[in-house]
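Format notes (please read before filing issues)

Several people have asked whether sequences and structure tokens are stored in separate files. They are not. Every record keeps both together, in the order shown below: the sequence lines, then the token lines. Line labels are part of the format and must not be stripped during preprocessing.
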Amino acid sequence: MPEKQLVLKNCQVIDPRDINTYLEQDGFKALNRALGMTPEAVIAEVKASNLKGRGGAGFPCGLKWELTRKSAGDEKYFICNADEGEVGTFKDRYILQQDPFTLIEAIAIAAYAIGAQRAFMYLRAEYHYLLDQLLDAIAQVKATGFLAHVNIEIFEGAGAYICGEESALMDSIEGKRGEARFKPPYPPSKGLWGKPTVINNVETLMNIPLIMLHGAAWFNQIGTEKSKGTKVFSVSGDVARPGVCEFVMGSRLDEIVLDWAGAKDIKMVQVGGATGAVIPFASLKTPLAFETVLGSGAITVLNNSRDTLDFVTRTIQFLAEESCGKCTPCREGSEVMLEILERLAKADGQPEDINTLSELSTVLSLTSLCGLGQATSIPVLDTLKYFRNDYDARIRQSVLLRAVRRQTNQ
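Then the structure lines:
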């Protein structure tokens, strides 16, 4: 299936510093159409499109808007999650750089639909260099009168991975240490400062003007039965052509990493960032969709020169360092998992380490407070499933080395 640009259609077409070039591409016609409808009708259109969140969880966007709209309270908030801290993701950065006006238009539509007069764009700390351009884009939109119903503010994060999780993100805006909250209550009923709140990520929002312009029926024609529309991917690792691309939902992984990115001699591909699924070369024809594997859109290719244990150890090291520490399973479990993996990587493992890793993975996935902790074990379990020989070889090497050391010391 060839690349199909819908979300990225304005990238490298418009001048991201000049709203007039966006207006020439039907800019803000979707907002005008939405403002001519009731908020309930806008939400019904988004619900009918079956648009799901592109941040990884895949929650229905329209349902989230409807729950917030119906929640009691005269003050509601909308948040655009532009934190993009997942390992291997840079597609939102590309969108922010190349097409800020579509994103602002989408935020304006969402705020109108849920009844929010105040909206935030939570910008990743590492994207500080984009701040002036985004502020200027908002000012240009405001000057044209398109933001009469909502005030959009930009809040810069502090670089914490956990703040990509929606409840930790809200804590951060409230001036607190970013930690996952207990759920329920969920943001549509009790979110930012205890008020009903919707949080959508950048790519999810980029679909909204398309849906409002072309209709839910048009959107439903694209993709698979359960995954509508397109998906934007960040492709990196051992590839000839890294970058950002957009494919119809259900496109195969090999079409992206082989045909588009020019990867060769592939050992494995991680789809969805640090907590994403690990796909072996033999499964490279896996379709990418919510009903199979998708995640946040990061695709990292590792060729056969890469060491499985080294890859898993580095991944868990990152996740252990970035654990917010609020819940014991994630805080302590990831550290113990890292200690075992580091020993295995140094050929100092024990035969029982494999079972311990499996048991720890189950505990983390079942008992961690938030999705990040629950997904920490995925790269461990997937590599144990597809690359068990690499673990067993390191165990045999460990046993042999210990025997040699004992003989040497005698």
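For reference, the curators noted about this record: The radius of gyration is 23 Å. Residues 93 and 127 are 7 Å apart (CA to CA).
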